[in-house]
């Protein structure tokens, strides 16, 4: 890949809430990203139907759009809450739609889980990593981070206020960019 190319990085939040801390975290990443990286957020996973392999003969438009955006992305950032010690159903459903079509095959990817609790959503984090590895996504070195007490680390202007977290996220984005460029 040409070093002057702007990388198309797409964020997916596992939360549909308007005030989601995970979505806000994705919004905050643009400020922390290297110059050659554009981060957009795909906000359509709530529009996907429940996964049913029989629908795949003629996939609904929402599925086709989702798959196209995943295919075009140079890299992905998934940020998810934990619901009842698992991955939110809406996010697992979205990933299931990508299994037969294979857009995540070797896709450079980082995974965040953010929670107001001390655990940082670690159970959902472990679970989604299992799924993504099965899908052969390329999780970048150091590209996996559980973030506890997220409510104290991000402000209303979508800025990460915790200095240590800022540095970790910056390093993660640089690594994601390098992995995407090496493809
Ligand atoms: C139904 C439900 C189940 C939850 N289960 C967990 C859980 O198992 N672990 C956890 O850390 N937080 C849990 N939470 C709290 C979420 O982490 C919290 O609501 C968080 O803000 C959701 O992420 P969001 O801000 O991106 O929407 C749960 C919340 C809801 C509504």
Describe this structure in words.
The protein is an alpha/beta fold. It has one domain: Flavodoxin domain (Rossmann fold), CATH 3.40.50. It has five helices and five strands, in the order βαβαβαβαβα. The protein has helices spanning 21-32, 61-72, 89-101, 122-134, 163-181; strands at residues 7-13, 37-42, 75-80, 108-114, 138-147. Strands 2-1-3-4-5 form a five-stranded parallel sheet, with helices on both faces. The protein is globular, with a radius of gyration of 16 Å. The mean pLDDT is 97. The site of flavin mononucleotide has 15 residues, from helix 1.
Number of helices: 5
Instruction: Give the count of structural domains.
Output: 1
The largest β sheet comes out as: 5 strands, parallel
Q: Give the full name of the CATH homologous superfamily.
A: Flavodoxin domain
Q: What is the helix content? A: 25-40%
> In percent terms, what proportion of residues is strand?
15-25%
Which CATH class is shown? Alpha Beta
| Succession of helices and strands | EHEHEHEHEH
Shape: globular
> How are the strands ordered across the major sheet?
2-1-3-4-5
The CATH architecture can be named as 3-Layer(aba) Sandwich
pLDDT below 50 for ≥5 consecutive residues: which ranges? none
Arithmetic mean pLDDT? 97
Distance between the termini: 7 Å
Could you tell me the CATH topology label: Rossmann fold
- List bound small molecules: flavin mononucleotide
Family: Belongs to the azoreductase type 2 family.
Organism: Paenibacillus dokdonensis
Protein name: NAD(P)H-dependent oxidoreductase
Pfam families: FMN_red
